[in-house]
Design a protein that fits this description.
Number of helices: 6
Number of strands: 14
Radius of gyration: 17 Å
Structural class: alpha/beta
Order of helices and strands: EEEHEHEHEEHEEEEEHEEH
CATH class: Alpha Beta
CATH topology: Spore Coat Polysaccharide Biosynthesis Protein SpsA, Chain A
Length: 238
């Protein structure tokens, strides 16, 4: 069995959840329930199943409720990265949490639900990981297995697994799942304050150090209330 590349994941959970209103009027988006449990617990349970023993969870909107929820879990062992003072976006959130994270670390968005294919996604990423060539390794899914997704796609992959972006207004064959394996090198020389991970990815693409692997299972984006019922239907088929 493939060794995991890291024993720790960062779970991005600090967003405002505006698209999920009115369900987020009184709760943070990661605590919205899907198939009987909070969204963030779907991600944390998958980490535990894979053998990832530690999680760093960033919090901002209704931070006390979210922190209390995840800290009650027996596993994984959760550390809070507190962004109550300033919401740092995805890139800034990782930079703030970097002292709490090993090199490399998994990073998972808390608003996605997925089903593994033949193998666990974290082991798939670990098997493909090559720190000599990669600053980050993204888990991508083809459009036909990207449920609740209405966009034009995010990336192309070349035969070596290197990622590139589509030309403006063009369609790309692969969608980013919100799951990646990240080297600290990706975070070097980062700007201060809030910024998107896209800034770091662009530099890694230019240096040919951003890679992807294709998810062999199913994946759901859970961005708004209308996505909940289809996601629950997918999970019910298992």
């Amino acid at each position: 069995m493939t060794e995991l590349a890291s024993d720790t994941a960062m779970v991005l959970a600090a967003g405002l959840g505006k698209r999920m209103r009115p369900l987020t009027a009184s709760r943070p988006k990661p605590l919205v329930r899907v198939a009987g449990k909070a969204l963030i617990d779907h991600s944390l349970d998958r980490l535990v199943e894979a053998g990832v023993g530690k999680a760093v969870v960033n919090v901002h909107y209704l931070a006390d409720a979210l922190a209390a929820h995840v800290e009650m879990r027996a596993a994984p062992a959760v550390t809070i990265s507190d962004e109550r003072g300033l919401l740092l976006e995805t890139g800034g959130g990782m930079v703030k949490a970097q002292p709490l994270l090993p090199d490399p670390f998994f990073c998972v968005n808390s608003d996605n639900v997925w089903l593994d294919g033949p193998r666990n996604v974290f082991r798939e990423l670990s098997e493909a990981w090559d720190p000599a060539r990669m600053d980050a390794l993204l888990l991508l899914v083809p459009h036909q297995r990207a449920h609740n997704y209405a966009g034009k796609g995010d990336f192309h992959l070349d035969p070596l697994g290197r990622i590139s972006r589509p030309r403006p207004s063009r369609v790309a064959p692969f969608v980013y799942t919100g799951i990646q394996l990240v080297a600290h090198r990706l975070l070097r020389d980062s700007p201060e304050g809030p910024f998107s991970t896209n800034l770091l990815w662009t530099r890694a693409i230019e240096e040919q150090r951003l890679y992807g692997v294709i998810h062999t299972g199913e994946w759901c984006e859970v961005g708004d209330p209308g996505a909940i019922v289809p996601t629950e239907a997918m999970l019910a088929r298992v």
